[in-house]
Amino acid sequence: MREQHLQDILRRLPAGVATLEGEELRYTFINEAMAGLLGPADATGQPVAVHAGPWPADLLDVMQQVYRTGKAYVAKACQLQTGAAGPIYCDVALEPVLDDNRISGLLLFAVDVTVQEQARQRTHELAIETRRLDARLRVLTETAPQITFTVDGAGRYEYVSPQWYLFTGQPPTCDLNAIWPLLIHPDDRLRVLYQSEAARKAGVGWSYEYRLRRYDGHYRWMLSRALPELHAPGQPVYWHGALTEVHDQRELSEARRRGEAELRFLADSIPELIWTATPEGFVEYYNRFTEDYSGLSTDELGPTGWINLLHPSEQAAAGRQWVHCIATGEPYENVFRMRRHDGRYRWHIIRARQLTDEQGPRWFGACTDVDDQHRLRQVLQTQYDELAQANRDLDTFVYTASHDLKQPVLNLRGLFDELRQGATFADPQAEQMLGMLDEALTQLDLTLQELAATVRDQRGLSAPAEELDVRNVAEEVLLGLRAQVQETEAVVELDAEAAPTLVYGRANLRSVLHNLVSNALKFVHPDRPPHVRVRSYLSAAGQPVLEVRDNGSGMVLPSQPAPVFQPFARQHPHIGGSGVGLYLVQRIITSRGGHLEVSSEVGEGTAFTVYWQERGLNGHA
Fold first, then answer.
1. Which end of the chain is less crowded, N or C, counting CB atoms within 10 A of the terminal residue's CB?
2. Percent over 70 (pLDDT), the chain
3. Can you give the residue range of the structural domain that contains 338?
4. How many Cβ atoms from other residues are within 10 Å of residue 566's Cβ?
5. For the ranges 7-16, 160-169, 553-562, the one whose mean pLDDT is highest
């Protein structure tokens, strides 16, 4: 009865139980749990070797060894052979059964531990992955150009990367918690300790900058950032963070801040209206002088304040030009009237330029007060117009007077000729007096002609420039002087090969050549026939030059290198002339940006060298 009751209990156990008898280890008792492991076929009475079921081969060998030796054996998490359902793990216990101190069989126990084994294996896999990730994290943190660290809730450093030892020069054996605060700059130490402690108590991260002493004794600015390791619902236990050196960035930022402060101070010190605007054209900064000039604050001026200060009649045009410059990026420049704080409008030059850099486009503008210069220019313009009008009136008067005096002179000449032909004088000096009178009339007529020519040539000083053939113009001039050339039996040589063309006013060039050549034909040496050479060439600097050289009587030059010829000044009074030719030549040359040089030796000859303006030569063929 008891044996039956015990079998009922064993049959219902959740663990597999079976008895194996004899040397062949035949199944004699199998409970329900063990039957589930062995499969649907009934194994009772069959040897284990015949009905191995899920038992692996090595476990069958162990069963034989336990039977022979009588020593119990327990196999932990033994993997049983199963089908598609997946592996099953059991703790298998083998106990020998004794009968009269002789082993008669084995007692087999199997406890299913599949869930526990799978959990253990998963734990093992997670541990391996954790170690792998930890190793990777250490490699990343220890190769990054930062100092990484871990701090516990009490503020003690649990870990610091090797970069800290390289940066500070401390040995790895040093007491990190004791030495770290001492390496912080004395001016930053209390602040850093307070901020880190406050963050740990509040369970939050921190971010602040402080100076840390480097291995060479220099303090470098560092950015310390850390975040707590959160494990809800309790307080964080660790803080993980990094130290990043920001010394160069901080110095650069400080230098930039000082530069901006200095530029702002400079802009505030300039007595001009200085402003900057966004890419859209809205003003974002006015210097102090703008506020003082307008009597308005920056807020009152607003983003378009400088336009609002303009005269109402000019605001629309200024605004349209500003919008056009914003759209195209072209520089802004114009002259407008701006209202001062007392309500008076003053003329200003308004300029703005666009600067484009890594921060994008920005506009920089300035309004310069030119009211005094503008009014002075108006006064000077008025005076210039009056002087120009007076000069034109004077030219007209001289031209009219010289023209009107021609007829009386002609009348005097006619009367004098009649007098010489029909009258006789008993005075022995009569012939001399008549000769002197004839000479005076001739000189008066020549003077009137020269005055008219001078006025006419001065009116042509602004003749339009054109490309001229120097040789052709010189031949035209010589054709007009043909009578003088023939009378003096002069030899005139033209040489324009080096610079054959010249961009100049035709009337001006003819006047210069006519006066210089006619002077050479007029002031000849009494002992030799005149020889005049006209040469056009280029100077060493590429500047066009005209030279007129003669072998005449020469003249005495003043001490200065560039003589100034005055009208009606003559060096040879015994030779007819009005003395305005060289004056007119100099006026023509200087009015177009050139200059005249003269070299002369009395009794040897004279050379006039004309240097035209720098860009007067169009080119030479």
1. N
2. 79
3. 253-369
4. 11
5. 160-169
